[in-house]
Amino acid sequence: MDNELSVLPENPRCLNLSALFLPRNYKLRVIPPSFFDYMPTLQILNLSRTGIKSLPDSLFQLVSLERLFLNDCHRLMMLSPKVGDLEKLEVLDLEGAKIMNLLKEIKKLTNLICLEVSFYGYTGNGRRSMQSNAVVPCGVICSLSQLEELNIDVNPDDERWDTRVEDIVNEVCNLKRLETFKFYFPRVELLRHFQWNSISLSHFRFTVGHHVKRIISRVPLDVEFELERWQRCLKYINGVGVPRDIKNILQHATAFFLDRHATVKKLSDFGTRNMKQIKCCVVGECNEVQMIIDTADAYGEDGISEIVSESHDAERIVLGSLEYLYIYYMKSLRSTWEGPVPQNSLNLLKSLTLRTCPQLTTIFTQELLDNLCSLEELKVEDCPSIKSIVSCKIPAEHRTSYFLPNLKKISLHYMLGLVSISSGLHIAPKLEWLSFYNCPSLSNPLINEVSSHDLKKIKGERSWWEALEWSNGRPDYLDEIFVPIDIWDC
């Protein structure tokens, strides 16, 4: 692997070979027709991330083959019908390839435990011959009764998928062994086919809602990676209202991505009790959202809390499992939280990012600060209405205490209205990293707001740093850890 192979021998004699790994040989474009003729015992074949466009017939004579990896072979668009001859195959990985459709012969692979496939969706009149083929022929999925893992990635613009998706969902529901499932549901109502008491998915990645695939995403790669890290992820795109089917899936999810929702005004409209297991939450481009959490949503008529009526304290907690929260491009967002903060709510939150929220004025209240004992990283960018990340008056008796005890990293960029970090409140006794850019009104935060004892790096504009006022002169050690910021860091 990784040795830049471009040519393979014609027919190597490897009579006892059980595994062959050739991944990441991007220059390898052709496999000789008789290359696999003398490999009768081959069980594992990895050709992932190579430049091959087709597979030789000799491969389909590998009667002992159990695992075939063709993931990220971007030039591979078709399989031979002879793939059905690989009757012992247990793993077929075509994720990231450009396969146009599954062949009906796949149904012969009754020993398959794992099937991963990415479909390349053709659009336009010039491709009608391709669109006429069913992306997944009828009966293929339900024939693979041993499947434990099924991952299907499609182009949301592919009209063939809309035509077949309901039948495919019905077939998937008959897979009794299925534990891992990745799928695109263009319509919310398709979720109703799933009876959670009859299937036990330990891992799922569901994308729900019709959308056009973007050429350039507003979601950074590191955020995409964070979403991928969690076992059960729900992405709800271009939604309207709060469908019961979404709330039902949300109860089982550990990651939630709410993207371009048209009508919802608060994340808590989806029900805080439905988000007890959520560890990662990303919310973006939801133009009507005015706040993230309103604890009034947990209260019934006459202000009697439905949560408080529960016998256990755990029922009171809001987002008690959440570790990662990323909010971006929310033009109507005004505050992160409204109402009382139940004890231990958000107490596991480690990372908070707020980007491009022009009307946001309130990030932290004192009640929130009391709960955020696990917060390690705070990023706020392009939120010009924020004057301080702490927007409440703190009683004098609390000003000697340190809040946000585990906060290690603060990044504040393009904050035109920012006057202070914490309104004079002491925060972040373990702070290690500070970054500022284009915060023209910010006074010196190192005098009485953040601790500098453990600071390892301060990044900012040289002109801003030189203009800061100090009561007893700037300590020399701070100059040693200051680094002029690069605009590409912002």
Automatic annotation (TrEMBL):
Domain (Disease resistance R13L4/SHOC-2-like LRR): residue spans on this chain: 41-188
Sequence ranges assigned to domain Disease resistance protein At4g27190-like leucine-rich repeats in this UniProt record: 273-383
UniProt keywords, alphabetically: Plant defense, Repeat
Domain of life: Eukaryota
Protein name as catalogued: Uncharacterized protein
Organism of derivation: Quercus rubra (Northern red oak)
